[in-house]
Amino acid sequence: xxxxxxxxxxxxxxxxxxxxxxxxxxxxxxxxxxxxxxxxxxxxxxxxxxxxxxxxxxxxxxxxxxxxxxxxxxxxxxxxxxxxxxxxxxxxxxxxxxxxxxxxxxxxxxxxxxxxxxxxxxxxxxxxxxxxxxxxxxxxxxxxxxxxxxxxxxxxxxxxxxxxxxxxxxxxxxxxxxxxxxxxxxxxxxxxxxxxxxxxxxxxxxxxxxxxxxxxxxxxxxxxxxxxxxxxxxxxxxxxxxxxxxxxxxxxxxxxxxxxxxxxxxxxxxxxxxxxxxxxxxxxxxxxxxxxxxxxxxxxxxxxxxxxxxxxxxxxxxxxxxxxxxxxxxxxxxxxxxxxxxxxxxxxxxxxxxxxxxxxxxxxxxxxxxxxxxxxxxxxxxxxxxxxxxxxxxxxxxxxxxxxxxxxxxxxxxxxxxxxxxxxxxxxxxxxxxxxxxxxxxxxxxxxxxxxxxxxxxxx
Length: 460
Ligand SMILES: Nc1nc2c(ncn2[C@@H]2O[C@H](COP(=O)(O)OP(=O)(O)OP(=O)(O)O)[C@@H](O)[C@H]2O)c(=O)[nH]1
Ligand SMILES: [Mg+2]
Hints:
Number of strands: 13
Strand content: 15-25%
Largest sheet: 7 strands, mixed
Structural class: alpha/beta
Shape: flat
Bound molecules: guanosine-5'-triphosphate, magnesium ion
Oligomer: single chain
CATH topology of the largest domain: Rossmann fold
Distance between the termini: 17 Å
Radius of gyration: 29 Å
Number of domains: 3
CATH architecture of the largest domain: 3-Layer(aba) Sandwich
């Protein structure tokens, strides 16, 4: 129901410089009038308050008890995030002050907002389409500059614009197809060739978006890289070197790491969740053996394995066996501790035999780590690195819709090429059109919309 006024704490709970209680809806300004005591007693609500900040106090209306010193931000409909009247109490960022302000606002007739409800209103009131609403979550969750850039470009409507162009072309094509159902005698062979050309063009556009999707997803979600290898080869040292901090315990005792240690690092704009694991070996130690089991589980979900080999010990039988078990994984072999050895201990042969890239590194001196970053970037994008601006699609939902749309378009093309009646083509084209609308929200079901906004935080 859009006729009620919603409220929530929009900043993270905890101590901070400021904290914001946000209200949106027809009664937002009325409610603020009852609670806000402006300095100097100005009648702020009378003097065109939109897009201004007023200084004063928030007070409990019945008792007059002052809750906090605040700045009141006012955004009058329709120029606000939700296109409704929006009022924000900028309180001091303390839990008690924020909770009390919120309670007081609720006591004056506002209702507690559900997660994402402000953004949902922005969508329902036509300020954002679904792609843009989803971009807002992506901005909040962005882990790297590249991920942020992608999300901001979606918020600005670049991706929505592409979808709208395709929809427009599809509408025109559908109209043509329907016209020739009604007036088949006007449909000449050269028109047929043109129709086919238009359909192919639309298919290409959808195909391009799909092909950018895998990469877009990587920028948004990143990948899991697991550091694995025998005990004591320098896995934890590598994690620390990549993080540039002493995150994991490093000792000369094999079997030091027992649990999985995960951190996110930024490699050339790609968020890489990197996991250090327990050294892989048979063991009677119950704690270590749980660690080894966890390592195995992490390896199963890894998108990339950084397999560490000790340069001093050379490539051992155990290394070979472990690698055998990781045959199906994307890997980079890292020959570590090269600062300790000049001698070639048969490792060159390993390099030649391996299909995976092999790099010599030293977690101690940092040698080879730059090459490692380059190699990770290349592998993640399978050697095809382009400018980040090309990645428009980053979201699994969008990818799924595009694939379904492509399927309908292909069916339409097939119907066309087999010379089936035009009305059959029209059915496929219309299905493609409807499917595409799910992306922006013009044809999305309530269920899809609920699902998307449930992912938002409270107060957004
Ligand atoms: N000289 C040298 N020593 C290293 C290097 N990398 C690791 N070491 C040493 O090797 C020993 C083992 O390092 P760790 O990082 O704890 O090895 P790990 O693979 O995590 O070992 P586990 O957790 O027991 O499986 C420590 O004494 C490190 O200081 C390196 O590049 N050069
Ligand atoms: Mg370790």
